[in-house]
Structure prediction request, 273 residues.
Amino acid sequence: MSYAANSEQSAQRKKRRVTDILQRKGGVPLTALTCYDATFARLLEKTDLDLVLVGDSLGHVVQGGDSTLTVTVDDIAYHTRCVARSLKIPLLVADVPFGSAGFSDERLYVDAEKLMRSGAEAVKIEGASLDVCRQISRLTTHGIPVVGHIGLVPQSVHALGGYRIQGRGNEAQQRLISEAQRLVEAGCFCIVLELVDESTAAAVTRAVSVPTIGIGSGNVCDGQILVLQDMLGLNLDFKPKFLKHFAELENAVVNAVSNYCREVTAREFPAGK
Prediction:
């Protein structure tokens, strides 16, 4: 399909809402990517994406850090506003940062309100402890849609012993099933499964009535999500087993800038009269 035809088709697409995401359970897989700026949001708007996440992964991708723990709610709110200016059709979800959920009720509610006022249409919260589920229940009761997130939860990476596959073995599988069911009871309309053993991801997906969205959890979930810059190949050195580079834009960018530098220094650009 040509770019023009794809743009025309995108113009005819309808707005994705929470109810649309719920209706995809067991059907055509959901498509989701992260995004952090208006330029990329404008491009994603021309595609068939269902959901866009302003993730705390911006701590790696945008800020150059080695974890998500330093990302603040103000960081995510700023990038959410940037994305919201260009994104209209996909459902826009914003991450609740480390230090909010599971700690102070008041802080979580203030942070969630800030993200919604910044343009988010839902928030994503990591973990499924009893405290977190209680807080999620209150948010959903008062009109803030919530995406759950279990398996490898990056905000707890130190407690988990690093970035490792989760849910291996019957005990671990049952724990994740129980966590997912608690999140559904709390009101989550979908659940991200990150780095979950594929057989466990399948079991969790069967056990809940809402869609699961996988990352590094095989193709058994109700949808998939990747970090935009990762799937575009903007860092070809980053290649975990689950990742596919759908492009190799690192090479394209480096070559373009190198050609620019060559032409400027050779006084070939801008061209003379």
Q: What stands out?
A: The chain has a mean pLDDT of 94. The first strand starts at residue 30 and ends at 34.
